[in-house]
């Protein structure tokens, strides 16, 4: 047994905790890639978009992968905002307001969208209209996309984001290799606290993002 482990018996447990939290973070990021690709495929299929799918770089850092996701989510938000801007310019104010009224039934919104389907690209059919209503005019989806982007930016800007590789062990080795004994104890605890905060915020956000998008895409033919 290492003298360091004898003198600081809690360090091995702390190392294991860092490894577990690091893997949880990676799992959440991987879930976000899958969810984003599901959304991109649906937009390309039903709203005539030409978005490119995203791929996780297992040799990159957490920060680099967060930036890939952020770019993809920003592209999705830009498309939704552009279509929404066309709707605003082609609809009477009262009709446009109804589209964003969460209490208005989807059937009413479908009728409104049919009025402008010829001047707004992406509405080739009923499925596209229904998909856009669920996606763009959903309070939940709008909040989830913004929340996911916000947490991804926070992770990318963190020390963990800059240091940790995506492959399990790569980033952890970077964290553990330079710290020993009492210094290791303090730094491990700091990493545990940082990772715990990030995972605690990112895990529920990732699940909500996945749930919101899956709920919509599962309704598509």
UniProtKB/TrEMBL annotation:
Q: Does the keyword Endoplasmic reticulum apply?
A: no
Q: Which UniProt keywords apply?
A: Membrane, Transmembrane, Transmembrane helix
Q: Out of the domains of life, which is the source?
A: Eukaryota
Q: Which InterPro entries match?
A: DUF4533, SMCO3
Report any Pfam family annotated for this entry. DUF4533
Q: Where are the transmembrane segments?
A: 119-137, 157-183
Q: In its UniProt entry, what is this protein called? A: Single-pass membrane protein with coiled-coil domains 3
């Amino acid at each position: 047994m290492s003298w360091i482990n004898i003198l600081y018996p809690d360090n091995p447990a702390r190392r294991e905790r860092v490894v577990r939290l690091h893997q949880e973070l990676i799992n959440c990021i991987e879930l976000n890639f899958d969810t984003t690709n599901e959304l991109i495929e649906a937009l390309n299929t039903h709203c005539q978009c030409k978005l490119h799918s995203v791929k996780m770089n297992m040799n990159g850092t957490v920060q680099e992968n967060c930036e890939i996701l952020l770019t993809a989510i920003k592209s999705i938000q830009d498309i939704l905002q552009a279509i929404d801007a066309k709707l605003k310019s082609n609809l009477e104010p009262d009709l446009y307001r109804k589209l964003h009224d969460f209490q208005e039934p989807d059937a009413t919104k479908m009728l409104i969208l049919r009025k402008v389907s010829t001047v707004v690209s992406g509405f080739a059919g009923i499925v596209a209209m229904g998909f856009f209503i669920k996606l763009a005019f959903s309070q939940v989806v709008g909040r989830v996309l913004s929340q996911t982007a916000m947490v991804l930016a926070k992770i990318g800007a963190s020390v963990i984001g800059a240091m940790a590789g995506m492959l399990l062990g790569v980033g952890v080795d970077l964290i553990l290799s330079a710290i020993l004994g009492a210094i290791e104890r303090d730094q491990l605890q700091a990493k545990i606290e940082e990772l715990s905060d990030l995972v605690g915020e990112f895990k529920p956000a990732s699940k909500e993002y996945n749930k919101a998008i899956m709920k919509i895409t599962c309704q598509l033919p």
